[in-house]
Amino acid sequence: MKPILKKISLNLFLASIHGFYRHFISTHRYKFGFIHPSSKVRFPILIKGIENIFLYENTIILGGAKLLTTKARFVMKKNSSASEGLTVVTGNHPYSVGEPFYIKATKDIQNAHDVIVEEDVVLYTNVTLLAGVTIGRGAVIGSGSVCRTSIPPYAIVLGNPAKIIGFKLFPKQIIEHEKALYPENERIAIEVLQENFNKYFIKRATHIKEFLSL
To answer: What is the distance, to the nearest Å, from the Cα of residue 146 to the centroid of all Cα atoms in its chain?
Structure first.
């Protein structure tokens, strides 16, 4: 009897949490800069600057996220997703010689820049995106990665600071992939894809191998 009661109690607890989540999101949707009806944001979540968050079609942010966007925008484009523990910080507090740092912090003086996640990106658990970063279309960001600089399309990255360790597809495969998903005027040019592949992978093959062997 006790196991049955425990199961019922757990189900009721989960149902109440789910109900609270649905109520929270439904009552706060109008506060977002933009949130598409198909977007899903899972509770619990900490948001500072909800009016600067723009979530487009089929985007997903799982629980435990911290979105600190008081001075600049966080944009997540269609079909992108973030696992638990996403952190987005669009600003940082500049330091001035001769002035206590806490003064700027308490006044919320920031250098702020948009954080943009392009289409079809996967952010795994506990990823951090810092001010000014753009995550290119189709990129995969490994668990625990801290992105302090922008990531090219279809790159696979890992680490703190995040390093490119490969690409999901070869340039010609990406061309075929994008033909099925995007209109011609939105596709990435083969020249750009080849340049990124050579710059971030071929020319860095030895460094990548050393990094992965650590």
So the answer is: 10
